[in-house]
Amino acid sequence: MAEIPAIKSSHPRQRRRAGSDGPTHKERDYLEIIYYLVQRGEPVIAAHVARWLSLQPPTVSHALQEMERKAYIRRDERGEISLTRAGSDLAERVIRRHCILERFLADSIGIPWHLVHEEAVQLEHALSPLLEERITAMLRKATTCPHGNPIPGSGFTAVGSVRLDRVVAGTMFTIQRIEEEAEERTDLLRYLEAHRLLPGNQFFIPDASADYGITLRSCNRDMTLSPEVAAIIWGESSPISALNS
Ligand SMILES: [Zn+2]
Q1: How far is the CA of 149 from the centre of ligand 1 (A)?
Q2: What is the distance in A from the centroid of ligand 1 to the CA of 25?
Q3: C-alpha to C-alpha distance for 76 and 223, rounded to whole angstroms
Q4: What CATH number is given to the structural domain containing 126?
Q5: Which residue from 105, 99, 80, 82 is spatially nearest to 180, judged by alpha carbons?
């Protein structure tokens, strides 16, 4: 009679508990955020991570200590955080998984654009390596998430982008991406989607002011965004003459 494999070693939940010194779900979230903050080229401190996660600084500080112990991050004497090689590799894997899930949810099963981030956050920790591999194979050509943010390892980088709150009046602006931090704000994403402020869409900028906001024109309709909202939108700015030539 064929031997039944031992239940203990084959049970998925038990397998998931194995390797308890690996990164926790929370640590994966932190790595993702630290990676994005590092990419911005600004000094990364615990307060930035706390703000992004809407957590109290002591909570974040405790988690960062543990991540330092596991050698995912380093902190210098001023408290500035950087990722170790292991931390950076892990962060890229976490982000790639998040991005391909977002693409799958948006492109294959029609989840609305403003909800794909939220849905992917819920699913990403449960994605098995097999499912990840199959979804990646389906989306071989994808280089960005549906919000336009580059998928690590895809070879695409958003070089040359300008922030919408820094463009000058009289130019054309093509949206390339919505900043990662804003993906947490579902209401804001809903607003952007409702107004067609999506990657790939192009607008004329008739008016731009650091105090009053940026006006975008499309199909003879104007809308003015506050400088705060414009600051989360990145894209390509071009003079009208270049566009018409
Ligand atoms: Zn995204």
Answers
A1: 6
A2: 18
A3: 45
A4: 1.10.60.10
A5: 99
Span from the CA of 74 to the centroid of ligand 1 (angstroms): 27
- What does the alpha-carbon distance between residue 211 and residue 22 come to, in Å, rounded to a whole number? 47
Q: What is the CATH number of the domain that holds 225?
A: 2.30.30.90
Ligand 1 centroid from CA 177, angstroms: 9
CB contact burial 129-154 (16+ within 10 A = b; e otherwise): eeebeebbeebeebebbbbbbbbbeb
Query: Which residues, chain by chain, have CB under 5 Å from ion ligand 1?
Result: 102, 145, 147
In a domain, 35, yes or no: yes
Segment 96-116, tens digit of pLDDT = 999 999 999 999 999 999 999
* Domain that includes residue 75, residue range: 23-83
Q: Give mean pLDDT, residues 156-179.
A: 90
- Span from the CA of 241 to the centroid of ligand 1 (angstroms): 33
**118 within domain boundaries:** yes
| CB half-sphere exposure, 42, CA atoms < 13 A | 11
Local structure of residue 152 (DSSP, 8 states): T
